[in-house]
Design goal:
Length: 203
């Protein structure tokens, strides 16, 4: 591990993320308004403080993005299958997660795909993970960025949501470190969300 120095931009970004995500999860009635606003704030913060990587060509990142999104969905589908088959406690948590926070109105889906997904990837991978990689090895930056990504989900009060964010964060973090393309990761995340929220939700 490299010599660590305090990066105040990381610290300030993390404080902002926790503050606004805490507010976001406090009231289901304003969740989608606050979630959208939070991602726009974090997206703006990331753009102002870190240049994102984009090494893959359009065809390459689109193809890899769709394929990896399908792979991640297949992994989640398999996990959900075993949860449902063995009647594990997470079954009720998944139902609660969908009923409380899944998109329901047309504008929810629009902001999810246009602002929330790109905002999450820009902040957690393009900003947080990239800056962490300046102070530590790639694998540690992926792991720590994923833990931080999962940490803001604690305010949902749903353990399976935190666990899912950690797993997905490691997956997308490794993908970002491998291909050095934020657009690729955004396409992967978009593909995953379209499948899990629109085409094949785990309801």
């Amino acid at each position: 591990m490299r010599k660590f120095t305090i990066d105040y931009r990381i610290l300030f970004g993390l404080i902002i993320a926790h503050f606004f995500m805490y507010i976001t999860f406090q009231d289901k009635a304003i969740f989608w308004y606050m979630f959208t606003a939070t991602m726009l704030i974090l997206m703006s913060f990331s753009i102002l403080n870190e240049k994102s990587d984009q090494e893959a060509a359009f065809f390459s990142y689109t193809l890899y993005g769709i394929l990896t999104g399908l792979i991640l969905f297949a992994l989640f589908w398999t996990g959900n299958f075993f949860i449902q088959f063995f009647h594990l406690p997470f079954k009720q948590e998944i139902s609660r997660l969908y009923s409380s926070f899944a998109p329901k109105q047309i504008w929810h889906y629009i902001v999810l795909l246009l602002f929330i997904v790109p905002g999450e990837e820009l902040f957690w991978r393009g900003f947080m993970q990239k800056r962490l990689s300046k102070f530590m090895s790639v694998k540690y930056s992926i792991l720590l960025a994923s833990v931080l990504y999962a940490s803001v989900q604690i305010y949902s009060g749903i353990f399976i949501h935190i666990l899912a964010a950690l797993f997905a964060g490691i997956f997308w973090g490794a993908l970002y470190a491998w291909k050095k393309s934020l657009s690729l990761v955004v396409v992967s995340h978009l593909t995953f969300d379209i499948l899990i929220f629109i085409l094949y939700p785990f309801r």
